[in-house]
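User: Can you model how heme C sits in this protein?
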Amino acid sequence: MKKILLSCVSVVFAVLPLAAQVPVTKTDPETELAMIFTISFIIFVIATLMYIIGVMNANVDPIADLYFRIKNYIVPPPSEVAPDVGHIYDDIRELDNRIPPWFNYLFGITVIFAFVYMTDYHVLGISKLSTDEYLEEVVAANLQKKIMLASGGSINENALVALKDAESLKEGGETFQKFCISCHGPQAGGIVGPNLTDEYWIHGGGIKNVYNTIKKGVPGKGMISWELVFSQKQIQNIGSYVLSLQGSNPIGGKSPEGQKYIEPVVTVKDSAKTL
Ligand code: HEC
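Assistant: Here's the modeled complex, given as structure tokens:
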């Protein structure tokens, strides 16, 4: 008996370091699988040894015992036939009731869930661990910060101009494709939101008006405010991109809404004043 216990312990201590040495990385599914199998094997060995010890101690037929145990797991116990352990205190008898099957089923479900969870999160990596989610957010935030810093972040809103350089338009276009096309369409021809490629504007054309509409949104009309999402420079880029689409007349574009916008003629003197 002692020997069996000892060998059991030595097996566990021989295999555990093996499992511990395997580094846990999501990038290597084979390592993960190897670890799961090693741990499962250890559990299997321990359970088997404990079972053998139990059978030896109780001096019962192992086959009959196994059958009895399996039946115990599946069939609900008849009430009040549990063996009396012979203890009576204050007229209360202690019965050796078996574990109710619902509890065993629950246990079985947790084991299955553990395997599904392990495979999902650690082996296949379909769902992201919270650490990875966090790191992704940090990377995204750093990128955002980089863009803000590189672009100067803030700009003088009173002296807005529609940018024409390829880089700003490209950046604006990429942002538009990511955040705006669900309502305005990939060519800005309009879906829920209006067509942005014609000369007609509900809230005014020209970079200043478009910039303001994007920044503040149109609360209550489905156009959200982007002020907290983008830097001023980014909004300028998006607005410039939108205006660069003027007259592109995309297929399936919505019919004009709002007023035809005519850019006010700014004399040199006036623009000097606004600056
Ligand atoms: C959830 C849908 C939705 C999204 C996303 C959305 N918009 Fe809009 N947008 C609208 C709606 C609806 C209107 C019309 C508001 C109104 O009727 O006053 C609008 C209006 C506008 C206008 C004013 C048009 C005009 O005629 O004056 C501009 C400019 C605009 N959106 C740009 C954008 C940009 C740029 C983005 C992405 C950063 C964007 N929108 C994202 C729904 C959306």
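A couple of observations from the model: Residues 176, 179-180, 182-184, 192-194, 196, 201-203, 210, 213-214, 218, 221-223, 226, 238, 242, 257-258 surround heme C (CB under 6 Å). Residues 12 and 148 are 55 Å apart (CA to CA).
User: Helpful, thanks.
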